[in-house]
Amino acid sequence: MEAPSQKNTADIYEAEYIKDLFNSMSVSYERMNYITSFGFSYRWRLQFLKKITIRQPGLQVLDLMTGMGETWIPVKDYLPGSKLTALDFCDGMIANAHKKNSKKFGNEVIVLKEDVLNNKLPDNSFDVVVCGFGLKTFNEEQLGRLAEQVKRILKPGGQFSFIEVSVPKNALLHFFYKSYLKHLIPVLGRLMLGNSHEYRMLWKYTSIFVNAEKAAKIFADVGLQARHEAYFYGCASGISGSKNSV
Ligand SMILES: C[S@@+](CC[C@H](N)C(=O)[O-])C[C@H]1O[C@@H](n2cnc3c(N)ncnc32)[C@H](O)[C@@H]1O
User: Fold this and answer.
1) CATH (one of 2.40.37.20, 3.40.50.150, 2.40.50.140, 2.40.30.110) for 4-165+210-242
2) How far apart are CA 191 and CA 143, in angstroms?
């Protein structure tokens, strides 16, 4: 694989490039994920799930860009009795998601290997769509296609919530958070993975993404009710909202 640093910005949004990136990271992603969220991985996820206000048992929930299922436990805790489907397009992540499914979830999660932008999920089939840290690797055009898919897949009245790592507006926090993501995380990545390229990309994507404000507008433009949310003083941000009832 060509080193990510040699790619120009347009190419870092290609599906094959992103699959390779997450395949390399799938070996260490769970540990790195814990470290990059300062050990608050569960709490960060619970925060964005709390934007979902429909909570009756039996909800059909879709976890997009599921990785190795990092959001599953918070989903099961916050939406007890829900039926969970998880989607990701990366072999390494999906292999780990299957392992987690059989070890900890009695294989009750439906795990799908698909590209969300070209998925075969039926129209109007989910009450809730959630996604942890899966927005930043989409460019604006792809975010538009993602928004169309969320709108298509959600049932009328269905709700969604996404969270993503972001660039805080406060100058001091910005300085420390950028140093952490841009310099320290790649060093930790090298120690765990023997290669810091993949984890250096975390800051590259985040610095282009900035925060979910633009994504919220893109989601609203396709006709979803969409709000921008800030979490943890802007170190994370998200979009939450719903599809209109008919
Ligand atoms: C940063 S990880 C997030 C994993 C997990 N949701 C979490 O909360 O930690 C992003 C995931 O999005 C997946 N992904 C990126 N683009 C995708 C696409 N177009 N279709 C499906 N999965 C995608 C990657 O394979 C990767 O596993």
Assistant:
1) 3.40.50.150
2) 33
